Amino acid sequence: MRGKLVAGNWKMNGSLASVRELIDGINRGMDTIQSAGVAVCPPAVYIPEVAARIGGGRLALGAQNIGDQDGGAFTGEIAGSMLRDFGCRYAVVGHSERRSIYAESDQLVARRFAAARRAGLVPILCVGELLEEREQGFTEAVVGRQLDAVIELEGIAGFADAVVAYEPVWAIGTGRTASPDQAQEVHAFIRRKLADMDAGIADRLIIQYGGSVKGANAAELFSMQDIDGGLIGGASLDAGEFLAICKAAD
Ligand code: 13P
What structural domains and CATH numbers belong to the chain? Predict the structure, then answer.
C-alpha cells in the first residue's frame, strides 16, 4: 500500500534568518505527524543549513531542481551527487515555472529525472496543463506527452523510485485549486497510463497534487483515491499552515 507524501517547495523565497525560523517551526511540529512522509525543498544555498537543523529526523530534504549531467563545465547547475552530499533525498524536476519561464523542454526534464535516479535521489516529476490547454480539452494529451518523454528515456521502470506531482498550471499560486474531482480525474489518468505498462509500479507510485493547497482544502483533496499527498508552494512558507496540510495527509 502506497503512503502519502507532502513536500514543501519554498521556491525562491526566504533569507537565512527566515529559513531558520521556518525549519525550526516545522521541526517542532513533526512529532504530531504519524504516518505521512514530509519533505522540504529549500532554495539550494540553504540546503546545508536546513540539513544541519533537521538532523537525522523524519523530515526529508529535497532540491527544487537538479543538473542533467553528473559534473563538469555546466555553469549554474548542481549535480545530484552534490545534493546527496548534503542529505537530499528528493529532487523536483520539470516544475511548470522551469518549463514555462526557463523554457525547459520535456526532453531536458527527462534528462534531469534520469540524473536524479543515477545519483540515488527520488525525482518528483511535475506535470500539468495550462489553462488554455484544459479549455481546449488537451489536458490528457499534455500530461501524457510529459510522461512519455520520461518513459522514452528511462522506461516504465524509471517510475519505480519516483514521485509524480500533478500541478495544473492555472492552479499554481492563483488561489484557484482544482476541485477534488478535477484533480482525481487526472491522477487516475496518470495511474492508468502507467498501469498499461506495469500495474505494480503504477499502483505503488505516489502521485501528489499541487496548486493552491492549504490547510483548509487539503483533507478533501487527499481523500481522493489517487491523490497521495501534495506539493505545496505558498502555504509551505508558514510552519503552522504546512503542518496542518501534513496532518491532513496523516
Ligand atoms: P502554490 O501552492 O503556491 O499554488 O504552488 C504550488 C507549486 O507550484 C508547488 O510546486
Answer: 5-249 (3.20.20.70)
